[in-house]
Amino acid sequence: MSNSITLGFINNYCAIVNTFTNGSLVSNMPVEYDPNLIEFYGNGGYAFFNDLIMQFAVDSVNNSTLILPGVQVEVKRFTDCGEYYPDADWGYWGNSGGFASSIMSQDISLVYPEVVGIIGTEYSTTAR
Questions:
Q1: Are residues 103 and 118 in contact, defined by beta-carbon separation less than 8 angstroms?
Q2: Please, how many CA atoms are within 13 Å of residue 3, restricted to the half-sphere of its CB?
Q3: Which of helix, strand or coil describes residue 97?
Q4: Mean per-residue pLDDT of the chain
Q5: pTM
Q6: Residues 73, 100: Cα–Cα separation, whole Å
C-alpha cells in the first residue's frame, strides 16, 4: 500500500500562455518549453523554469527508494496572479506581494486540506 502527500506550488502562472485556472488552482501546465509560447527572459520563463525545477525535485523523490520510501509526492499548482494575461510577462519586477502573498498559503491549506506543504517563488514583507 502506498501513501501520498501533496505539495502546493505557488508561482506566477498568469505569465504562461495556455495556462488555465479554477480560482487559484492551475488546471493545466505545459510540460515542455516552447519558445513560441514562453518568453525565456520574461516572467513566463521565470515561472516555467522554476516550476520545472520544483517538479524535478518531486520526481527525484518519487523515483528514489531511499527518500520517503512508499510515499508518493503529488503536486497542486496555484497562481498568485489569476488567469494568463499578456502583460504579466513583463509587468512584474520582483516587488513583494505583501499581505496577500502571506495569507495565500493559509487560504490554500483551508480550501485544500490535503496540501501539507507549500513551495513558491513569491515572498512577503510581512514574514519575519
A1: no
A2: 6
A3: coil
A4: 85
A5: 0.86
A6: 27
- In the chain, DSSP assigns E strands to 3-11, 21-22, 25-26, 71-79, 115-120
Distances (CA, A) of 9 to 41, 49, 56, 67, 101: 21, 13, 13, 20, 13
Radius of gyration (C-alpha) of the chain in whole angstroms: 15
Contact criterion met (CB below 8 Å) for 115 and 109: yes
Residue 12: band (very low, low, confident or very high) from pLDDT cuts 50, 70, 90: confident
From the list 52, 54, 71, 75, the residue with the least C-alpha distance to 62 is 71
* Cβ contacts of 61-65, under 8 Å, gap ≥ 24: none
- Pull the grid cell for residue 84: 494568463
